[in-house]
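haha ok so turns out i had the wrong file open the whole time. this is the CORRECT one, sorry everyone. sequence first:
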Amino acid sequence: MKILIIGATSAIAKATARLYAEQGQELFLVARNEERLLALANDLKVRGADSVGHRALDLTDTCRHQQTLDQAFDVLEHLDLVFICHGSLPDQEACENNFELALQEIHLNALSVISLLTILASKLKTQGSGTIATITSVAGDRGRQSNFVYGSAKSMVSTYLQGLRGKLLPFNVHVTDIRPGLVDSPMTAQFRKGALWSTPEIVAQKIVKAIARKQHTVYAPGYWRIIMTMVCSIPEILFKRLKI
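then structure:
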């Protein structure tokens, strides 16, 4: 299987890439930091990847998306899977008080993803096959006081993926929306961890299985589906008072 991983040096992406490397897959990695990309590529080769290409790219630079994706297609010649896994967790209060900061975070967490999806959808339609799997978040299921800037960006991507899934169905292209819950990673290093927290490795196992089964919307771990069903069922007259 030929796999393109975008945001490859994030914790979840690395854990997922390692599972695919152990299966002997062909990988092409895209992320911002060249040094970290090279270290990951070497690690994946040791773990059994058939081949590993890579290219450094600041994913907020949407003008370079086309060129980078063209290169990935040239190297791999065919794509079975694209895994998009980049983003940041913004300071909610800072974003509330500074629109430019909020826009920056929405650009990274939503608009840059949609830019990639736009190009990839066209390429996979022409190819006539493939899977696009994208990391969103349970935060996108409902706007909560504590993180509605981040949540709204992820919700935008989830809504886009839902529509894209239908558009690409006649072209034999599958779309998977992966919604992790609380994951212990460098992005969440400042938070205290509790019983609901998971590891990138556990989430990666769920991702690989879900992609193989061509699932549509995946909560990782699965108990987050129950939690978010409960959260979404709370009447707004009560929910607006909850500081969660």
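The CA atoms of residues 90 and 105 lie 7 Å apart.
again sry for the mixup
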